[in-house]
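Hey all, quick one. A colleague (J.T.) asked me to put the nickel (II) ion job into the tracker so the inputs and the structure tokens live in one place instead of scattered across chat threads. No bug as far as I know, just bookkeeping. Sequence used:
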Amino acid sequence: MSELLPHIRPVTYEGPKSKNPFAFKHYNPGEIVEGKTMAAHLRFSIVYWHTMCGQGADMFGGPTAIRPWDAGLSGLDLAKARVPAFFEIAEKLGMPYYAFHDRDVAPHGQTLRESNAWLDTITALLKEQQQRTGIKLLWGTAQLFVHPRYMHGAATSCNAETFAFAAAQVKKALEVTHELGGEGYTFWGGREGYSTLWNTDMKRELDHLGRFLHMAVDYAKSIGFKGQFYIEPKPKEPTKHQYDSDAAACLNFLREYDLLPHFKLNLETNHATLAGHSMQHEMEVAGAANALGSMDANTGDLLLGWDTDQFPTDIYLTTQCMLSTLKYGGLTTGGVNFDSKVRRESIDPEDLFHAHIGGMDAFARGLKIAAAIRADGRLADFVKNRYASWDSGIGASIEAGRESFASLEKLMLEKGEAVACQSGRQEFLENLINEFI
Ligand code: XLS
Ligand code: NI
Ligand code: NI
């Protein structure tokens, strides 16, 4: 196979002193952190949609980045040409995983039958490249939001035949994900929400979404697909309100529809901030429910209000992500999946490398810093001591379920007042974290 980017060599670790923009300064795949390699902690993944299909178009202008491997091609020919290009980039970056939507690897056909046939053609090429490179599929998904048939949603559409088409599409996407050995399958509810409540029967739509996901679970079982299912929360965009708006809303939905045993969450940084939360908040909500599955790693822009999907470079952010990840036992089926795109002005293939190298190094630093904070122990000790009143006496008795309002009133009538509260020491803790950043 001829190289498409022969001037770009495989990216290796050169250490923090290196000035080579095509080298890792912090991501050293084999380095051991808390008893595991960095590669095993981070499980990096590159996405097909932004990397291959993103060409910089926005609402005000067309594509700016016409990739050399795309030039002059369209349809299935274009889709075929992108496969080796994608794997060359992924391989040179040392990515162990990738993720895709059915319709970004293969085009929409005129009919479902034609779309399925094209997807089969590309699946064979993906499989060949997976075997050649050893790169694995983190998760697959179906694109249920671009085609006009999905204008009112897919599983939550007012149109039952749209629901049926979406079911057929997910069935096929599950088969393909299974065929490619995918370790997971993600549902991001692209248009599963509403634009106006004047035309929406919310309860009915949610019931349909619950039924749809049960059908997916049943079908996966019938074909022997054992990968992890994920829901990816996002509060809005493209709809005004998306039902899977944040981690808490997803967990509530999954519990209500008896789906929680089958799903974990795939949390995306920029979606967390669109929901008015930090990524750390979302990770703690998911982790506390034992549903922390995977991460779509990116970041937003404080001054722009939409899903800008920028590459993560903020060390505080990656440190927080890795602290929560380590706290809840690490990523198992999930990964750090760069659902991120280069800016419209970054038009060269080289920019795809700078972007991913930066994101991988930022997460490697976050991992090392998080491990150092944990080894140091002062942060954990502070939090533990903050709750010391629950470890014995009345606190332990409440936690054990031995107290009631009446017994607690009796205690406080005797005491007259609760013991004085202690300082939360927020500024002290912020300084402590800064010792490590
Ligand atoms: C869009 C989502 C999407 C999912 C996969 O905002 O992040 O890319 O990750 O459908
Ligand atoms: Ni995403
Ligand atoms: Ni997104």
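Adding what we noticed when we looked at it: The radius of gyration is 24 Å. The chain has a mean pLDDT of 97.
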